[in-house]
Amino acid sequence: MDPALSEPLNGSGPAEPPATPSPANGTARPPSTPEGIALAYGSLLLMALLPIFFGALRSVRCARSKNASDMPETITSRDAARFPIIASCTLLGLYLFFKIFSQEYINLLLSMYFFVLGILALSHTISPIMNKFFPANFPNKQYQLLFTQGSGENKEEIVNYEFDSKDLVCLTLSSIIGVWYLLRKHWIANNLFGLAFSLNGVELLHLNNVSTGCILLGGLFVYDIFWVFGTNVMVTVAKSFEAPIKLVFPQDLLEKGLEADNFAMLGLGDIVIPGIFIALLLRFDISLKKNTHTYFYTSFVAYIFGLGLTIFIMHVFKHAQPALLYLVPACIGFPLLVALAKGEVTEMFSYESSAEILPHTPRLTHFPTVSGSPASLADSMQQKAACPRRRRPHSPSALYEETNEKEKESARECKEGAPPSSSSSSSETEKKEQ
Question: Which of 171, 271, 425, 434 has a CA between 20 and 30 Å from the CA of residue 344?
Fold first, then answer.
């Protein structure tokens, strides 16, 4: 998820054409009812909480995954510091594109791009759920999509994607949603893709520590304020950009049903950016091994408070609000206050998510005490593992010749620097077995 595409929360509705939002000035259509507004904002809040909660839970399993394709992307402090600059350049570039070139052709290109990404994201999201509905005798065949470059020793993998028959079923269902979105641009299809993007972002983007999270959220805090209050760039891009990079819900749903078109919207950046910080605090909770999720629930409640405050301010002042203006202080401040109260500030800022020793990444912490160097020990162990065991001879003369040959080989290895204790113990073991 690119935060340059995250819009502020606003209650704007569409003008001509119907899919394009316009400022909520009350002149284009009759004003929405209080019930419809409450339903729209409540639905947006619920849709924002779902990918954060389940994405954080799946981020824990993702960190322990043995599948290389599911390994998370770690954000370092250097990445976090450059993020607002890259986001600003991307946002400004999109603004200039919409000003110079035809909006219709740009949105067509972006629609095809997000069509492919949306199918893959939605398939990855529903795959764990769909696996529970497949019967036990379902013929699940394994497939691998491999693209390489070069040949011989210079061959490099470009794409290495492993999947099975169940994944193909999920991909087919996701493709149906994708075609529906591409043809109709319906708000329900848009939200399905938006939820999938958000959940995948929270699951697969990992902050390496709390300090990096503070740098990232602090930088985007300034970025969001500047581009919303300082210029009209972000609001213009938000209105012109026809892609599932926002969650929308109609305020006139009660009057027009599923064909309603007066939308309130929330940018995915206002979900993913705080969400990856909340997921980091969940992993920190687990690392404490206290069987409590204090920091996760605290930050989760802080997000609800911050987004609720955003909705309230936006509704009172009738102006688009940068949601990170309220979310960042809440999501950082609430857990920090809890850490101060519990005396765990040092533990919080010293926690390194990327330094965890997981079950699938065994690490050698010390070398065993044996004669010879550790390198020679490792070489001898690899040679013994690689050599197949030969069939034992049964005649006494053959047994004597084999034993004499092994003793000569052991003496030759001692001269070359191999650990004699390992060789002699191996010879004695083989004699006992015979």
Answer: 271
